[in-house]
Amino acid sequence: MSKLEEIANGVLAGNRRSIARAITITENTPEEAQKLIALIYPHTGKAHIIGLTGPGGAGKSTLTEKIVREYRRVGKTVGVIAVDPTSPFTGGAFLGDRIRMQELSTDEGVFIRSMATRNNPGGIAKATKDAVKILDAAGKDVIIVETVGAGQSEVEIIKVAQTIIVVHAPGLGDDIQAIKAGMMEIADIFVVNKADRENAEKTVMDIQAVLQLDTREKTWIPPIIKTVAVTGEGIPQLIEKIEEHRVFLQKGLLHKRSLEKAEAELIEAIKEQVTGSIIGKLKRERRFEKVLQQIVDREIDPASAAERLLNQELEKNSQNDEA
Amino acid sequence: MSKLEEIANGVLAGNRRSIARAITITENTPEEAQKLIALIYPHTGKAHIIGLTGPGGAGKSTLTEKIVREYRRVGKTVGVIAVDPTSPFTGGAFLGDRIRMQELSTDEGVFIRSMATRNNPGGIAKATKDAVKILDAAGKDVIIVETVGAGQSEVEIIKVAQTIIVVHAPGLGDDIQAIKAGMMEIADIFVVNKADRENAEKTVMDIQAVLQLDTREKTWIPPIIKTVAVTGEGIPQLIEKIEEHRVFLQKGLLHKRSLEKAEAELIEAIKEQVTGSIIGKLKRERRFEKVLQQIVDREIDPASAAERLLNQELEKNSQNDEA
């Protein structure tokens, strides 16, 4: 049995160390990750995947912690993936939150992992998707993916989820702009956390106002749930809505979304493999550098250069095949 | 003369309407954009491209406006591209700022354009790069690209610039985290705007502290400039630093950076074209949908499916070539 098969079997048995090692592989060695995912993929598709996002200061980590505890109370196993966009030289922010989460993870029914974005900011969406598959194959009933911010890459990451929760809180000021920008369209449930603050009602109304601008026809109207994560207030109601949304998906949309997700992942995989093979090969040839210099010298534009290189490549391929 | 050739000639002559039409093409019709860029590309490479980014509320728009006025004062022509991540249904935020900028654009030596991100969030980085090339070919001496936020996609956009300015302001609280996350590594110049506020010195020290954590060897230490954009205070000093950085680049780094940028653009173009041709073709075939269903049914994982499809494609190609 190869090392990867051993890890895959460990994952399928729900072994913590195997799960941790498997996720590390997805972060660091994309080629091994691909083989590993191929091994476990047949055992995925059972977990309900929840995405949780929103601006800094909204209380996402505490909310995640309370959601985990509530699911544990009703006997479900939970995996958590926190995507943390810390910089190479600032190190980890929000350490306190993470320590509190680590306490939770002494529970055998919970697996918590922060994804390191420092080494491959571009590959983080891919690694997160793989980590979700690993926790899914490991038998977790519920998987929560928590991201900070609302940039394009966060939207990309959070799309792995079936139920997307967008969290906001009163008094975050301009950040409502950030929510508007990217997250409003993809939210299945809104949470106004810190709802014991005096401006909570205004935050609820702000979200309602933006929702009313959305004139697309909808079969699911995103509810707005008020919570006070630190005291646990509103958490059972939130779980109820998550379950409602899960049932709603299963009644119809789930298959459509699964197909869309499969298509997105397949196209991404095709792009990656083409990049890996064609570009890797081109880079080892002298003409690649020559073309770069031509682009810098404005003798040819990048798109035309790409076209020329690809055509040369196709010609060579057919010659090789004939030989 | 084709319509595109006409537009290209108009761009090269610096005609405003042609420039506007050309940028619209980059936003909406990627295939036409590629042809257009090929036509104007030989005339690019002369402008100095400045990137300006930072969290909401830092005063980026006012700062951009003042930089434009200062460059105009010394007789340089300027192009501005504002990348505005407004949502499909919220419409344009910061309308007041934009109106103020429009006043500026009655000046023949200034061209200002907001890029619409609503239709293709993924394509915005590409469209912005193309718009920069258009303004460059149109003869603008200085081009400013202004983006909001600090997500991965904003980092991607701002990389088009030769001199990157990261703007911050006192009292934005947690947003320093956002700057730390993605922008610190790429900043050539820091600006602490609203420097007349009482906490300005603390903001400067925060940035210094983060800078000191960066132990990489550097030939350019990013300076921190204090400005009060609304009164114009500090703007001449900022322009001076931008010019210093431009000269610094020309003494050595510029060629290296040009090669890196050419490589990034070439690889991106190869990926796009492969996607456009191979994936476009695959999607029209029945087996594509069959494979999607197999992925959903967990019979095969996306990466293995991609491998299989690509191999089939290569085999078919060689058969076609032999026939």
List keywords for this structure.
2 domains; 12 helices; Rossmann fold; homodimer; 7-stranded parallel sheet; alpha/beta; globular; 323 residues
Overall description:
Two copies of one chain form a homodimer. Chain A has helices spanning 3-12, 16-28, 30-40, 60-73, 95-104, 124-137, 152-158, 175-182, 200-213, 235-283, 286-296, 302-322; strands at residues 48-53, 78-84, 110-116, 142-147, 163-168, 189-192, 224-226. The first copy, chain A, has 323 residues and is of the alpha/beta class. Chain A folds into two domains: 45-252, Rossmann fold; 285-322. Chain A has a seven-stranded parallel beta sheet, sandwiched between helices. Chain A is globular and about 70 Å long. Residues 86-95 of chain A have low confidence and may be disordered. At the A-B interface, helix 3, helix 7, helix 8, helix 10 and helix 11 of A face helix 3, helix 7, helix 8, helix 10 and helix 11 of B.
Secondary-structure element string of chain A: HHHEHEHEHEHEHEHEHHH
Q: What is the name of the CATH architecture of the largest domain in chain A?
A: 3-Layer(aba) Sandwich
Instruction: Find the CATH topology of the largest domain in chain A.
Output: Rossmann fold
Radius of gyration of chain A: 22 Å
What is the topology, as strand order, of the major beta sheet of chain A? 3-2-4-1-5-6-7
Q: What is the end-to-end distance of chain A?
A: 38 Å
Q: Note the quaternary state here.
A: homodimer
The biggest sheet of chain A, with number of strands, parallel, antiparallel or mixed sense and barrel status, is: 7 strands, parallel
Shape of chain A: globular
The tally of structural domains of chain A comes to 2
How big a fraction of the residues of chain A is strand? 5-15%
The proportion of residues forming helix of chain A, as a percent range, comes to: 55-70%
Text of the CATH class of the largest domain in chain A: Alpha Beta
Tell me the greatest interface. Answer: A-B, 81 and 81 residues
The total count of strands of chain A amounts to 7
Give the low-confidence spans of chain A: 86-95
Q: By CATH's scheme, which homologous superfamily of the largest domain in chain A applies?
A: P-loop containing nucleotide triphosphate hydrolases
Overall average pLDDT of chain A: 83
Structural class of chain A: alpha/beta
Number of helices of chain A: 12
